[in-house]
Design a protein that fits this description.
CATH architecture: Alpha-Beta Barrel
Low-confidence stretches: none
Bound molecules: iron/sulfur cluster
CATH superfamily: Aldolase class I
Largest sheet: 7 strands, mixed
Order of helices and strands: EEEEEHEHHEHEHHEHEEHHEH
Shape: globular
Radius of gyration: 19 Å
Distance between the termini: 37 Å
CATH topology: TIM Barrel
Number of strands: 12
Oligomer: single chain
CATH class: Alpha Beta
């Protein structure tokens, strides 16, 4: 792992209609979780080798400074380009310190992760919840064996279901990002029903689905290499079905969405998350 100095830590976004984030925070560059389908490998992001982890050494100092100068209180999202709770965070504890800084400045936060290490920081997340905090745990299959193939370094799915249960039971707004679903691998109605059964038991506040996979230059080559390794013959099927398409929608998408909406509606679980709502007149003091 390398330590680097960064010029900034928060990038402003157009408010995301799904995740409700206004600022994006990445303390690390690269990701240890090594998911075979990871979009962060795409050449357009110029991240280099995904497993090469760089930590922004001045992250906390920058975060403190940037939050002090923000005039609009918007949700800080973390977890889009890498997993904030990848194994290195267990020792580094920088995300934990960043959350304390966010709590101090009273900003809302949305954490996306595949790791139950997030439970370590429940105390700080609870504190941020006074303003707004959401934790989205990504789960793509109910099958632990399959999750260890497609997301080899992330805790297996059963640990993630347990994390959702614990966070929800502790009053933290927690949901599931059910994405991506990999065509011909984990996209059957039968598997979706199994996943939803376990998900509902964990009492999430929302489940956001996307029954498709994004493949671009850089991520496609790696994904195909892993298909050859773990699912012989599958790469050829993808090439026939999707060619060079960026958005690879499951051929079962219609049936999957119908099943998803029917089951989640019956369970009273929304398919979109509630976002932070600022007070209309809210403006932060610069001093
Ligand atoms: S956790 Fe997210 S960022 Fe990390 S490898 Fe998996 S998909 Fe990529």
């Amino acid at each position: 792992m390398d330590r680097i100095l960064s010029k900034s830590i928060l990038s402003s976004l157009k408010e995301d209609p799904w995740f409700g984030t206004k600022y994006s925070m990445n303390i690390y560059r690269g990701c240890q979780h090594a998911c075979i389908y990871c979009d962060s490998r795409s050449s357009c992001y110029q991240l280099g080798e995904l497993s090469h982890i760089r930590v922004k050494e001045n992250a906390l100092e920058l975060l403190n400074k940037e939050l002090r100068s923000k005039r609009v209180r918007g949700t800080i999202g973390t977890g889009s380009m890498n997993d904030p709770y990848m194994p290195v965070e267990r020792k580094e504890r920088i995300i934990r310190e960043a959350l304390k800084t966010i709590a101090h400045h009273k900003f809302p936060v949305h954490i996306i992760t595949k790791s139950d290490l997030v439970l370590r920081d429940m105390d700080v997340i609870k504190e941020i919840s006074r303003i707004y905090a959401a934790v989205s745990i990504t789960i793509t299959t109910a099958d632990d064996k399959l999750s260890k193939i497609i997301e080899p370094v992330s805790p297996a799915s059963s640990f993630r279901f347990n994390a959702i249960s614990t966070l929800s039971a502790n009053g933290i707004y927690t949901g599931i990002t059910l994405m991506p679903l990999l065509p011909f691998i984990n996209d059957t109605v039968k598997e979706l029903k199994l996943l939803l059964e376990k998900a509902i038991d964990a009492k999430p506040g929302y489940i956001m689905p996307a029954f498709a996979l994004t493949l671009r230059e850089g991520s496609r080559e790696y994904y195909y290499k892993m298909l050859d390794k773990h699912f012989p013959g599958m790469k050829e099927r993808y090439i026939r079905e999707f060619g060079n398409s960026h958005n690879c929608v499951s051929p079962n998408a219609k049936a999957l969405y119908e099943t998803f909406y029917k089951i989640t509606k019956a369970a009273g679980i929304p398919y979109r998350m509630r976002h932070y709502q600022p007070e209309e007149t809210e403006q932060l003091s610069l001093f």
